[in-house]
Amino acid sequence: MRPEIEQELAHTLLVELLAYQFASPVRWIETQDVILGEKTTERIVEVGPADTLGVMAKRTLASKYEAYDAARSVQRQILCYNKDAKDIYYDVDPVEEEVAAPAPAGGASAPAPSASTPSGAPVAAAPPPPSAGPAAQVPDAPVGAVDIVRALIAQKLKKPFADIPLSKAIKDLVGGKSTLQNEILGDLGKEFGSTPEKPEDTPLDELGASMQAIFNGQLGKQSSSLIARMVSSKMPGGFNITA
Question: How many C-beta atoms surround the C-beta of residue 156 within 10 A?
Answer without folding.
Answer: 18
